[in-house]
Amino acid sequence: MPFPNSSDIDPSSFILASIPGLEAAHFWMAIPLCSMYIMAIAGNCAVLFIVKTEPSLHVPMYFFLCMLAAIDLALSTSTVPRVLSFYWFNTREISFGACLVQMFFIHTLSAIESTILLAMAVDRYVAICHPLRHAAILTNATTAKIGLAAMVRGVLFFLPLPLLLLPLPFCSSRVLSHSFCLHQDVMNLACANTTPSVVYGLTAILLVMGLDALLICISYLLILKAVLRLASWKERLKVFSTCIAHICVVLAFYVPLIGLSVVHRFGRDLAPLVHIIMGNIYILVPAVLNPIIYGVRTKQIQRRILSFIHIHNNRTAQ
User: Fold this and answer.
1) Distant-in-sequence, close-in-space partners of 286: CB < 8 Å, separation ≥ 6
2) Helices 80-89 and 272-297 meet at what angle, rounded to 10?
3) Which of 16, 52, 172, 264 has the greatest number of CB atoms lying within 10 Å of its CB?
4) Residues 6+ apart with CB under 8 A from 20
């Protein structure tokens, strides 16, 4: 089936990006993408189930991990099925309304995830620097309020993005740079003054992701300062090792985010393949890595997974 071009696309729709010259290989290229999506679904659902059923994990750090897992499930599910539909069934068009909705979910969920990562950093700071007050400061009720505040913050900051694009006229060329909709990508196709959208988008990113990243760095500087006061290197390593999983998750979120931003800002002359790969990494890599990171670093999660595998093997043997 031939791919449509921009001249025969409905004016109320956009064209998702394909890789020039590799259209015939889309079916096979979607298989690793689908595999990563299944891994993300299975891993994050496992985290939610294990934390729910393991009483020893009913503490703020793992409640925040559950929030992170739920966000990753929502973020990957709001994008990957549509990408797979494009690769497997050649449904390359996406309506303007569906594009704006997808854009809202991607940016809002990313903002919520950034806030939760900041809350997890604060949890590590309180646990290490003020251990006797940790239980009193971060109660279950406080944890739930932080999760609600993260959701409200994400919606309030990023709801205006699609609303600012809604009245804009768009050019005849409506080919996106990715297989899903991002604010800057859609905005670049507008045939009107986009200064308000540019300014607000940059402001929202700086006030949410930028501020969160700064506060996470400050939290770890304070943690490092407290750790270095300990008497022995053995104690220092033992205390700081409780932060390793969170640091890895922060890097898994912010490195693809920064990479995608750099590609958008400075990579207009790069091959379309680079844009598509960076977009897929941004959506899927954190969702795949987060359960693995905490699974490796958390003994209770390891025990439950090994127990499940053992039971499954016994049933298979019978």
Assistant:
1) 72, 113, 249, 252, 253, 256
2) 130
3) 16
4) 272
The three-point CA angle 259-261-266 to 5° equals 95
Q: Name the fold adopted by 26-313.
A: Rhopdopsin 7-helix transmembrane proteins (1.20.1070)
Q: What is the DSSP letter of 131?
A: G
Number of alpha carbons in the 13 Å side-chain half-sphere of residue 289: 18
Total length of the chain: 318
Q: Are 72 and 287 in contact (CB under 8 A)?
A: yes
The predicted structure's pLDDT at residue 175: 85
Q: What are the start-end ranges of the H helices in the chain?
A: 26-53, 60-77, 80-89, 96-129, 134-137, 140-158, 160-165, 183-187, 195-205, 211-228, 233-240, 244-266, 272-297, 299-317
> pLDDT-based confidence at 6, cuts 50/70/90?
very low
Q: 182: buried, middle or exposed (CB in 10 Å: 19+, 13-18, 0-12)?
A: buried
Q: What is the DSSP string of 15-68?
A: E----TT-GGGHHHHHHHHHHHHHHHHHHHHHHHHHHHH-GGG-SHHHHHHHHH
Contacts of 213 (CB under 8 A, 6+ apart): 114, 254
Residue of 107, 124, 108, 120 lying closest to 146 (CA atoms): 120
pLDDT of residue 38: 95
The two structure tokens encoding residue 28: 């096979």
User: Using CA atoms, how far apart are residues 75 and 69, in angstroms rounded to an integer?
Assistant: 10
Task: Please write the tens of the pLDDT for every residue from 115-163.
Answer: 999 999 999 999 999 999 999 999 999 999 999 999 999 999 999 999 9
CA pair distance 79, 110, nearest whole angstrom: 13
Rg (CA), the chain: 22
Gap between the Cα atoms of 90 and 88, Å rounded:
6
